[in-house]
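Sequence in, structure out. Go.
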Amino acid sequence: MKCLNKIIGFCMVFLLSISMLSGCNGQSYQIEQPLHIGSFVNLPIVRPSGLASENVVIPYDAYIFDDADSEYEAGLLINQTRNTVVTAVNPHKKIYPASMTKILTAIVVMEAIENGQIALTDTVLVQRKIEFNEENVTALGLEPGDYITVNELLHGLLITSYNDCAIVLARYVSGSISAFVDLMNAKATELGATNSHFVNPHGLHDNNHYTTPYDLYLIFKEFLSKNTLVQIDKETDYVLTLYRDDEKIQTNLVSTNGFLSKSFDIPTGYQITGWKTGTTDRAGSCIILEFIKEDTKEEYICLISNAKDKEILYQNVEDMLKEIY
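Output:
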């Protein structure tokens, strides 16, 4: 009976709140004025099951900064082990992800592997010419008639960020770029990344291709759960192989991660597991990566978006890590 009374009481409160919001109590809601739900009643919060318990929660109006002189646009440092925020700058701001997009591309490909649709060892025939609408695009140079395995394509996608590898993988998994992008957006929504929209698998600029640092954090956590992808990310010396007209062509892959390519020193006391960089004119220099602190074994996800250049990008990663005690 007590339980029934609680249910009835909740329903009455809920109906009262609806009437107040709709203006049925004689008070009209002025559209030009903000509506503060908290001033009425405490309404139930609905969210995907487990999302709040499995991820750090950052209120939408938290950590907002507007500094035109800032060296980067947005960033996050999250303690994965404790699910706490170490530091954050505009975590819910709309950003262009550039090649950080490829972490979602890789997730969709891995799910096709896990459900038996394709295999890492599959040999893919490049059937159509690959063209981009801008110059100086980083690409392996795949041509119609080339043969290359899914495993090699993933290495090219993640280590050296080859954009044509993203196109070939998308076509192989889904038959078309548009169908693959549908899978990307569906997966992002499933992971709670609801302030994102993707229109291609590589991250070259499009005004309708965007995300937020927090959404990328949610997507990257899923990426880190895929051991195959993390192992690829750890490769610092890899020779990619493809075949063209019975000729074996090999390419030494150079990591776009400046810490792994030794362009910049890895912060003392930390190890890097998964990561992805990104660079376009509109997105600036970007990176998302996971560090493990060697003494405590705690895991941290770090993201910086739209840094003014690579030196500033990597310096600010180091500066963020100094916030850890």
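Check: The chain is about 30% helix and 20% strand. The two ends are 52 Å apart (CA to CA).
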